[in-house]
Design a protein that fits this description.
The chain has 86 residues and is an all-alpha fold. The chain has one domain. 80% of the residues lie in helices and 0% in strands. The protein is built from three helices and no strands. Helix 1 packs across helix 2, helix 1 runs antiparallel to helix 3 and helix 2 packs across helix 3. It is globular, with a radius of gyration of 15 Å.
Length: 86
């Protein structure tokens, strides 16, 4: 069970950093760059539903911030559930 909790923690941590990298690359890398396209192809499906609910405000896109919060919330919920199953 501990190994499963570790794997889930690592997965969500990688997902968290992937979103941060996608945001940073959006400032410094052209949208057609292969690296950015690949990362965007992984992150964009998670951002799209948030963007439908939370449109850009004042030209700023807060959907990555919301996604980072949701990633942490889901990680904590899943790990706590697994810890209760021990």
């Amino acid at each position: 069970m501990d190994f499963l909790i570790l794997i889930i923690g690592v997965f969500f941590q990688l997902l968290f950093w992937l979103v941060i990298i996608a945001v940073l690359l959006s400032y410094f890398m052209a949208p057609y760059h292969p690296v950015r396209q690949r990362i965007d192809s992984l992150v964009e499906p998670m951002l799209a539903p948030i963007r439908r609910i939370l449109p850009p405000m004042g030209g700023l896109d807060f959907s990555p911030f919301v996604l980072l919060i949701l990633i942490q919330v889901f990680r904590n919920i899943i790990i706590r559930l697994l810890l209760t199953l021990r």
